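Predict structure. Input: Tetratricopeptide repeat protein, 356 residues.
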Amino acid sequence: MSLTRSDVKKRSIPPMRKLFLTALTGLFCATTFAQTDSAAYYSDKGAQEWLKGRVLVAYKLFDSAYSYNKTDKKVVGDLAKALMALRRYPEARLRYLELEKLGDQSADTYNQLMTLSFNMRQFPEAVKYAQLLKGVDPSVKVAYYIGKAQYDDENYGEAIKYLNEAAKEDPSNAQVPYLVARAYADMNNNKLAIPYFIKALELEPKNTRWMYETALIYYAMNDDKNSLKYFELAIDNGIRQDNEFKENLAIAYLNNKQVDKGLAILEEMVQRRPADLTLLNMIAEANYDAKRYEAAIDYWDKMLELDKTNAPALYMIGMSYQKKGEKAKGQALCDKAIEMDPQLARNRQKMEMPGM
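Output follows.
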């Protein structure tokens, strides 16, 4: 039986296809081996430069190795390490995440992911990797990281729980009691916060910022004596006295009946902020409370110069004149202020009550 042209074609195709697939497979293998060889070459060169301390050069070589082989743990790990050294933290974190996906469950990888996630404010991830790190290395101390991550995530109950564990792991870490104090303060429980502020300052006695915060917490608790104590402690230790600090310090002096000290600070401040109505009113009220009525009138007058419609200032000028014994003049000014702002009549009713 003779073969037709069609039969020849049918019998010829399978050997040709097999030959093509064999060639393609060989080419793929050759390319893969070439890439692996290239990755190994750049990786070795990068390691040599790394040992010489030439971090940037090493990084470029590690990056070249990575471009040829993204599935080799050593290649990915070396690149992550170099990125960390160059402080390119977001990129480093991505490489460490790749390393984890490749099956790396080492303590170092989990530690890096915990730290990077925490510093990048990815708090749930920081907690996750802290717990994984603890799983592979039970001796590692991670309670502080978990506690701080929970605090920054405003999960105060869990924060306090882990920070108390952190205090056992490292009793010398002043940040631990400080963060517990902040957690209680943020929950408006100043009474529970105070012992932890004091403990933090025992561990870090030169921290003027914490002294200032402690002073403010005592102020919020109406404990004026201790509030002033910590204000002065902060000053003795060299705190930078900005306007906010000075204003609060002045209030602390006034609350402790140290009027001259408080007024001296406020009067110095008003020289730099002469149009500050709040500051002018504070000085006027302090003088009024100290029965220094002429001085009080002077400062409320300054407020009226800045705003002639300021009825409360006019009313208090009237009250000051009455306290001085010039009752008719004072009442006339109070009446005029009430015409400007009828709500001020309530103040007159309070003043007329027995004991006022």
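Residues 31 and 272 are 75 Å apart (CA to CA).
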